[in-house]
Amino acid sequence: MKISRIFVLDEIAHDPLVRTISEQYPHIPIKQVDSTQTVYKFVLSTKKDPIEAGKEILFLNHNQGAFVRKCPGTRAYICCGYQIIHIGTFCTMDCSYCI
Predict the structure, then answer these.
(1) Taxonomically, which superkingdom (predicted)?
(2) Is residue 41 part of a domain?
């Protein structure tokens, strides 16, 4: 998937990394938002499948938890015992095993 839009949380809009990323993608629209909910509402308002739409968005936000976590598993998946890198929401990698 290709990134088609970038959202930046107001709190980190002036972070040097945000500037670096925006310079790397000058052709992609960047919108500052005041909350994660604004991004979720945008995704749900598109005519695409929400999961597909989310994979076309880069949402720059501060990390709100552990970066490396124990794989959560679900009732439908047998827990593998792996450690996962938790990059957050709107991941563009489209892994077939992601839960």
Answers:
(1) Bacteria
(2) yes
* CB distance 31 to 11 below 8 Å: no
What stretch of H or E contains 54? Answer: helix 50-54
- The answer to the question of residue 25 being in a domain is yes
* C-alpha atoms less than 13 angstroms from C-alpha of 53 in its C-beta half-sphere: 12
DSSP summary character for residue 22: H
Contact criterion met (CB below 8 Å) for 57 and 51: no
- Per-residue model confidence as pLDDT tens for the chain (99 residues): 788 999 999 999 999 999 999 999 999 999 999 999 999 999 999 877 888 888 888 999 887 777 787 777 767 767 777 777 766 666 666 666 665
Domain count, the chain: 1
User: Is residue 92 a part of any domain in this protein?
Assistant: no
Tell me which residue range forms the domain holding 72.
5-85
